[in-house]
Amino acid sequence: MRDPKAGIYLNSTAALNGSFFEHTTILIVQHNEEGSLGFVTNKSFGKSLHELIEFNHAKPYPLMDGGPVDREHLFVLHSRPDLIKGGEQIPNGLYLGGNMEQVIDAINTGAATQQEIQVFIGYCGWDPGELEAELEEGSWTFS
């Protein structure tokens, strides 16, 4: 079994059927002694960014359902540090977070595509050792 690390994708197995994680793919963005953090990358939230009061000035843009934790906040993954400053670099040429005004500007002007910016509501989180235990029990496979 491989160890989880930032930049890897995990796929849920049948062991998670009937849960929030049924048929999900998760990108792990942080994995360290404090635990793990990731985002579901294949589940739409069902609303657009401009439908949120705070972002009603944005163009219609899909929101992803990043996970069941902290569903009161938005999280951004992007590959455009030239347009969006302040993001934390993670593997695969991606950045976590950054200046939200610049995110909205890149969306509104079309300077970045949906492949270059993903906006999530919520995230997936694991305490130290929890993700490793779920991998060991067969809840996840590596992509």
Brief characterization of the structure:
With 143 residues, the chain is mainly beta.
Task: Provide tags for this entry.
mainly beta, VC0467-like, 2 helices, globular
Indicate the overall shape: globular
| Helical fraction | 10-25%
Total number of domains? 1
Main pleated-sheet profile: 10 strands, mixed
> What is the chain-wise order of helices and strands?
EEEEEEEEHEHE
Strand content: 35-45%
User: How many strands in all?
Assistant: 10
Mean pLDDT: 96
What's the CATH H-level superfamily name? VC0467-like
* CATH top-level class: Alpha Beta
Distance between the termini: 13 Å
Query: What class do helices, strands and sheet pairing give?
Result: mainly beta
Sequence stretches where pLDDT stays below 50 over 5 or more residues:
none
What is the level-2 CATH architecture name?
3-Layer(aba) Sandwich
Q: The CATH topology is what? A: VC0467-like
Radius of gyration from the CA trace?
15 Å
